[in-house]
Amino acid sequence: MISGSNAPALDSGRAFFNTQGGRWAAEQFLKQLKAGKPMSTEALRTLDTLRRDEWKFFDDVVLEEAKIRLRAVGDLMSRGLTKTVPNGLGKTIYEYERMTDMNPAQLSLDGVTRSENDRVEFDPANLPLPIMHKDFWINLRTLMASRTRGESLEVTQARVAGRLVAEGIEDLLINGTSKKYAGQSIYGYTTHPSRATSGFGSNGDWGQSAKTGDNIVTDVLTMLSAMHTRRCFGPYAIYVPSDAGVKLENDFKANSDLTIRQRLLQIEGVQSVTTVDTLATSNVLMVQMTEDTVCMVEGEPLQTIQWDVEGGMVLNFKVMTIQVPLIRGDAQGRLGIYHMTD
Fold first, then answer.
1. Is the whole model's pTM more than 0.70, yes or no?
2. Which of 13, 74, 169, 308 has the fewest CB atoms nearer than 10 Å to its CB?
3. How much is the pLDDT for 311?
4. Is the dihedral of CA 292, 187, 222, 205 positive or negative?
5. Which portions of the chain are predicted below pLDDT 70?
């Protein structure tokens, strides 16, 4: 992601009123391509219309909203589970490989006996790289009036657009999308066909009033056992919907000094228990937080771009990012995700 203080470089090569409408944006991309440079959104982040401080206002509020909304995505980024795609704007597909395992190692006293000659096999696959974006606009007179009065630029629209884009990325990681791009699917934690699934144990889902702390611990141990069977040994993140998140703040037992959430974090391998409001009621997830299970593929960081239309009287803005979850199991179909649902 970008921050307001280290946003992409800003170019001031075009006079403020020397505008050719929306055609200018395409010209900037063509100029880059003709120069043999990667196709980049930096061509639309210039000082021709907005001043540096005004760009900083937009960047700061967009990132503030992203930090609030990106809970599950934030977990991946904080653990370094990301892959950057160079020149991501110029690519629509990310190519990767699924890998098989080898047979077990051989035990011998002399070390001379040859073990079975083996090799890893690779299964190629593709991941679409769509853009998540939200557009808004500002009238030129509104911008000029804010400068005349010496007031900061109104950034409410940028804040809302940043929140919607962040929510979209978070929802994509949790729930995937039913859309297909070039025949390829984007799966989320709750939709990947290789995830393990089951119903809840005693007293229903975790948001039910009858569900006890012991019931919840038993559910987690059930998930943990199934993950070990899949040779997925952690570390694990658990994700719960909003109603279950409130429930987890109750005492584990009557007069206990632990909440249910704190008790779950005492289970070996469980690193975090996070409430995610994009996860529907009656769903709980356990995810192995390793690169061979999940990572975020980033083609473009979260940012704002701008171009003008209507003879320069309307300034169009787009908050956008290319961030797509890559969820993959091995060639045997083993995946480190357990989905408990009704």
1. yes
2. 13
3. 77
4. positive
5. 1-55, 57-58, 99-102, 111-115, 119-122, 146-154, 331
Q: Where are the domains of the chain?
A: 20-27+39-94+125-188+293-327, 196-291+333-341
Domain 20-27+39-94+125-188+293-327 fold = Major capsid protein gp5 fold (3.30.2400)
Q: Which residues contact 307 (CB under 8 A, 6 or more apart)?
A: 22, 24, 25, 44, 315, 316
Tell me the three state secondary structure of residue 184. Answer: strand
Is residue 342 a contact partner of residue 199, using CB atoms and an 8 Å limit? yes
Strand partners, 318: 135, 305
- The residues, any chain, with a CB within 8 Å of residue 44's CB and separated by 6 or more, are 25, 28, 305, 306, 307
Q: Which of 169, 190, 165, 3 is nearest to 72 (CA)?
A: 169
Nearest CA to 283 out of 244, 340, 242 is that of 340
Q: CB–CB of 292/335 below 8 Å?
A: no
Helix H segments across the chain? 23-34, 52-69, 72-78, 140-148, 156-175, 213-229, 242-247, 260-264
Rounded distance between C-alpha atoms, residue 173 and residue 196, angstroms: 17
CATH topology of domain 196-291+333-341: hypothetical protein PF0899 fold (3.30.2320)
Residue found by looking up tokens 């395409």 in the block: 26
In SS3 terms, 91-118 reads as: CCEEEEEEECCCCCCCCCCCCCCCCCCC
Contacts of 7 (CB under 8 A, 6+ apart): 45, 55, 56, 59, 303
